[in-house]
Amino acid sequence: xxxxxxxxxxxKKPGTSVKVSCKASGFTFSSSAVQWVRQAxxxxxxxxxxxxxxxGKTDYAQKFQERVSITRDMSTNTAHLNLSSxxxxxxxxxxxxxxxxYSHTWGQGTLVTxxx
Amino acid sequence: DIVMTQSPDFLxxxxxxxxxxxxxxxxxxxxxxxxxxSLAWYQQRAGQPPTLLIYWASTRESGVPDRFxxxxxxxxxxxxISSLQAEDVAVYYCQQFYSSPQTxxxxxxxxxx
Lengths: 116, 113
Hints:
The structure holds two protein chains of two kinds.
Chain A: E1 3-6, E2 10-12, E3 18-25, E4 33-39, E5 46-52, E6 58-60, E7 68-73, E8 78-83, E9 92-98, E10 105-106, E11 110-114
Parallel strand pairs in A: 2-11
Antiparallel strand pairs in A: 1-3, 3-8, 4-5, 4-9, 5-6, 7-8, 9-10, 9-11
Chain B: E1 4-7, E2 10-13, E3 19-25, E4 30-31, E5 36-37, E6 39-44, E7 51-55, E8 59-60, E9 68-73, E10 76-81, E11 90-96, E12 103-104, E13 108-112
Parallel strand pairs in B: 2-13
Antiparallel strand pairs in B: 1-3, 3-10, 4-5, 6-7, 6-11, 7-8, 9-10, 11-12, 11-13
């Protein structure tokens, strides 16, 4: 059974960084891609970026280009999202999802709260 | 960026009746070489992550009930639920993956009348 399990909720101060992890199981991680999508309360889904696991190639939305980094660890079947220079409007639920284009399997979501 | 616009924002349908949700893209998402539309539909129940319903505009994901169907091409797409069930109460999103960044519609909230 394909599954993506994310790390727990985070509370961060403005200007700091957050790292969200996503552990995959039930499929061949090295042959997949992982996307990161966020959703602020009551808002639409917003794509942040993605990574092709085998090659490590990344693609980021221009909006996040200067402060996002997506990495992977194939030894632990885990993908990571790093977002820096946090602002209050980064408060959202962050999801990882498997798939190159459309996403078959989603993590449960990680609430990141940015507050002073 | 390709802008995805859904209509209506809110829809109330009686149990057993048909529900239709529309999605329009600001530019075509049809790949002329593959003849495939890079369009997906997701269902998001309250407090849950999205789940994939339809991809390539009309291919139903494994395990999705056949009352869900997708149609359309180019810039205009439709998600149809042929006979609404109580468990279909959710917000529905379309997504284009034709070009980066992939983008989503604003969502359509579906409730029981």
